[in-house]
Amino acid sequence: MPYDPGDDVIVIHQPREGAASGTFRAFAATLKGLKTTFARVPEGTITINYPEEKTPVYPRFRGRHKLHRFEDTGLEKCVGCSLCAAACPADCIRVVANENTPDNRVSAGERYAAVYEINLSRCIFCGYCEIACPFDAITLGHDYEMADYNRSDLIFTKEMLLAEPLERTPLRTADE
Amino acid sequence: MPRPVVKEITFTLDGREVTAPEGMILVDAANQFGDVEIPVFCYEPKLGQPVGACRMCLVEIEGIPKLQTGCSTPVRDGMVVNTQTQRVHEAQRAVVEFLLINHPLDCPVCDKGGECPLQDITYGWGPGTSRFIEPKRHFKKPLELSPLIAIDRERCILCYRCVRYSQEVSEDYQLVLQQRGADSYVSTFDGHPYVAPFSGNIIELCPVGALTSRAYRFRARPWDIEGAGTICAGCPAQCNVELTVRDERVLRVLARDNENVDDGWLCDKGRFAYQAVHSDERITTPLVREGDELVPASWDKAIEVAGAALEKAGAKAAAIAGGTTTNEEAFLLQDLFRGKLGSSHLATRAGGEQPLDVVRALADPKLQATVPDLEFAHTVLLVDCDPIDEVPVWDLRIRKGVRRHGTKVVVASARPTALDPSAAATLRFAPGGAEAFLVALDAALSGDTGNLGGAASAAGSNATAVSEFADALRAAGEEVVIVYGERALRGSAGRAILNIASRLNLASIANAGILELPASPNGRGLREAGFAAGHGPGFASVATPGHGGEEIAAGLASGDLQTVWLHHVDPLRNYPNRPAWEKALAGAQTVIAVESQLTDTVAQFADVVFPAEAYPEKDGTLTHPDGRVQRLRQAVGHPRGAGNTPGSGVRPLWQVISDVARAVGFDEGAALAGSQVSQRLFEAVPFYTGLTLDAIGGRGLRWQDEATFDVPASEPGALDVPSGLPAKSEAELRLGTFRPLWAAKEVDIAPALQFIRAKQVVELSPADADARGIREGDRAEVGNGTRIPATVRIRAAIPAGSVFLAEGIAEHNSNVLTHGIVEVRRVGPGSTEPSSLPIQSQPAVEGLAEMPPSAGLPIPPREVAE
Ligand code: SF4
Ligand code: FES
């Protein structure tokens, strides 16, 4: 037997269909909305055609990390001190250091990072690693396009972080 | 020697009354009883008297106009100390600023960064800024202080800790501070590498990153790692260690100070041989012999083959255990052998067994000395053992006693020991004469001149020397600790030791007693767990005693025994008489080996190989030679097999023994968990009753403190004089062997220790060397029939007529020689290069000949930056 709701049901009175008030309300609301629409038409389009076009970012935007080299010598600035790993609240940096030898000089100090990995699927882009780095070896760049088909591809290795990133993110100019 | 009595006094610290023992150093008293931390750099009580070199610990003491160093001021009653005044703060800031003047502040590349007292104190007490803008002093860096230690002299704050350690603790006298003032630097006096058995301790002592481990160099930072406390199972000393673990790999071994065991020091073997744990040469899957080949097999198959072989052999099966075998493994294995197979052929060492009443009497709790007793006794007697090779940290402990408490050391041994220069009396007997010497010493102590002469000459000594030695033994006082090597225990040696102990009344004197130095790291635990031919768990008598080591070899060779289980032992390398063992293993139907490397024993003779766990992978208990039950705790996972699937590789050995027990249908001897085995062990051994793993904890428990077991008191009885030494001709020498500290299979594959791997060396007396025209460093052949080549080392302290070879080493092992009388022939000139001389574990005490090789550490010119 179907359930009889009895007195629990409160009937809300709607405008009767076909009545004049009902018709008015339907049209008036639509026209009000359309007024906003047409008022914006002269302003032109605001949406952009992502990914053909990209939103410019602020200069201090914190996107994907970059590792840097010294411009004159080409040596890596990172000495593998692991301070970034200590500062990282998401625990997404792994550094394994090794010793520079005369035949294999990688960085300017006594040690270099043999392994430098950032797990970008964990990173919260807080920028603490950048602050912790005593050699300005790591900075957060502007790239935010990091979607991938495979989680493990989001672990960026030292080579990937050192490579000149694709400059695909426009920077906001001063007046924008 | 009575431990110092302490009186409590009260002094005022920052306006509060603090009670502390009188004479305690202010820094310690403030820290322990006043909850005030006074910063220190150079102060380290383990190094002996304070030197007051760094001035970090300045405090204000009322009544003394100048600030005082808290590290060298003992507290007095009524003293008023202020540590928080403006003057003290200013002084502290000034000292930190001063110490940092020449410090490069290269913390990001420094291995000490993150665990550095200099960093901590600079944060806590430093001024925050420096006014120093002049160039800092510069040295070449990093330099190799030794193949194990890198030195960065720029970082050194000249606190003297390392130098004091080398001069006053390890007494190798190698490190010195060269030059004066701002030019000072730490070095060995002539620039040779600092190679010594205990050199690694200075890495931990250095309060800055000046001395760092080369094996650990740049491997990890303190926040990347975890510390795992366990004990080192490398030798019977069972030092407490903390393993540094990163990504399931052991990267470093640090001391975990336990004054009842190790006093906070480690030897370099314990500190660096961990590298063997992650060697590629480890066996990680079970192997089964098919035809002539050992092939990897599944666990099921290996267990089945081993089980079938044991079942078939039944009472003709034998087992030998050694190395890092835990009490639990020993217990399970003896249970399987006795309970199911009906065999009591269980051995832990090469030689035979002492009678059961002697074994029990030697383990009498009343007669047990402890490790701290070595430091505080009036006299320590060493019989036929050299602690530096066999239990290295005891060597440091005995030296500490001699240096700080006036303990007398008397040494009776065939081979000169490292402690001879500190000894009050030494007596040399002929190799193999330990038993006769003990009988002679007993006779000398009892005044039995009849026995004395015969026994003394049977030992290759004479009555006068032995009675003088006996006088020296009694001269210093009644507290005597007798340390004897297990290999001295032959024939009536056990009874002789008991006689000596009762003549010196050791059982009723506290802080005196005997300490046996077992042949394998857990020798005592194995016996207490019942792994012995003559007794069960807790020294309970058994109906049919089995065979000892030598008889097992004979039995296997003759076919009386069929199958042998080798648990962490390698008889071909570590037992005397290799030819006999080769015959034995060839004669055995099945050899089941638990082994971590493809040793000769495994490669040539094993039919089933179970991969052995390394000690950082083990869980269980070990028993220290003084009766302290200690826990081994797992620090890293077991290596996986080729398929990388869990369970494919190394498995816990208690589990392996349980599985084999199940395979032979002995379900009651199998266990489901490691802790269950411990529980069963504690229940089975009467004097372990009440122990739990939790109670043992990280510091261990001496069962003698809680439990006793009854040993009938025995009066010293008359002993037979052992037969004399075999005759030898003028041209021949008596061969003795010794096991160098570095003779271990772990050392052989640890990359950091390759430079110090034990090589064969023949030690000769100057007289014998002259007679043969042999000079230091020459190549010689030693033997009688079979000959082995060795490099000659001449030691003045060796009596003419004796010659010594190293045993337990990988190449040219002395155990291929089966005859105690040998000839030594020069076969060619050696090189005069000191580096061609094998490094032994002796510190440089006998002049230049004992100096470690020098590859030349450049003494840096002082370079001042422009
Ligand atoms: S090397 Fe280290 S321990 Fe030695 S004096 Fe310098 S700072 Fe002290
Ligand atoms: S700690 Fe007192 S002077 Fe160094």
TrEMBL record, chain A:
Domain 4Fe-4S ferredoxin-type: from-to ranges: 66-98, 114-143
Keyword hit for rRNA processing? no
Residues involved in [4Fe-4S] cluster 1 binding: 78, 81, 84, 133
Give yes or no: UniProt keyword Plastid: no
The main location class comes to: membrane
Q: Name one GO cellular component term.
A: plasma membrane
Any idea where this protein resides? Cell membrane
Highest taxon of source: Bacteria
Provide the E.C. number(s) assigned to this enzyme: 7.1.1.-
- One Pfam family it belongs to: Fer4_7
What cofactor does this protein call for?
A: [4Fe-4S] cluster
The UniProt entry's sequence similarity note says: Belongs to the complex I 23 kDa subunit family.
Q: Please name the NCBIfam families in this protein's record.
A: NuoI, PRK05888.1-3
Function noted in UniProt: NDH-1 shuttles electrons from NADH, via FMN and iron-sulfur (Fe-S) centers, to quinones in the respiratory chain. The immediate electron acceptor for the enzyme in this species is believed to be ubiquinone. Couples the redox reaction to proton translocation (for every two electrons transferred, four hydrogen ions are translocated across the cytoplasmic membrane), and thus conserves the redox energy in a proton gradient.
Q: What is the name attached to this protein's record?
A: NADH-quinone oxidoreductase subunit I
The gene it comes from is nuoI
TrEMBL record, chain B:
Q: From what superkingdom does this record's organism come?
A: Bacteria
For the region Disordered, what residue ranges are annotated? 827-866
Q: Which cofactor does it need?
A: [4Fe-4S] cluster; [2Fe-2S] cluster
Q: What InterPro entries would the database entry show?
A: 2Fe-2S_ferredoxin-like_sf, 2Fe-2S_ferredoxin-type, Asp_de-COase-like_dom_sf, MoPterin_dinucl-bd_dom, Mopterin_OxRdtase, Mopterin_OxRdtase_4Fe-4S_dom, NADH_UbQ_OxRdtase_75kDa_su_CS, NADH_UbQ_OxRdtase_ferredoxin
Reaction(s) this enzyme catalyzes, per UniProt: a quinone + NADH + 5 H(+)(in) = a quinol + NAD(+) + 4 H(+)(out)
4Fe-4S Mo/W bis-MGD-type domain spans which residues? 225-281
CDD domains tied to this protein = fer2, MopB_CT
| Domain 2Fe-2S ferredoxin-type residue range list | 7-87
Q: Name one Pfam family in it.
A: Fer4_Nqo3
Membership in a protein family: Belongs to the complex I 75 kDa subunit family.
Q: Which PANTHER family match?
A: NADH-QUINONE OXIDOREDUCTASE SUBUNIT G (PTHR43105:SF12), RESPIRATORY NITRATE REDUCTASE (PTHR43105)
From the Swiss-Prot or TrEMBL record, give the protein name. NADH-quinone oxidoreductase
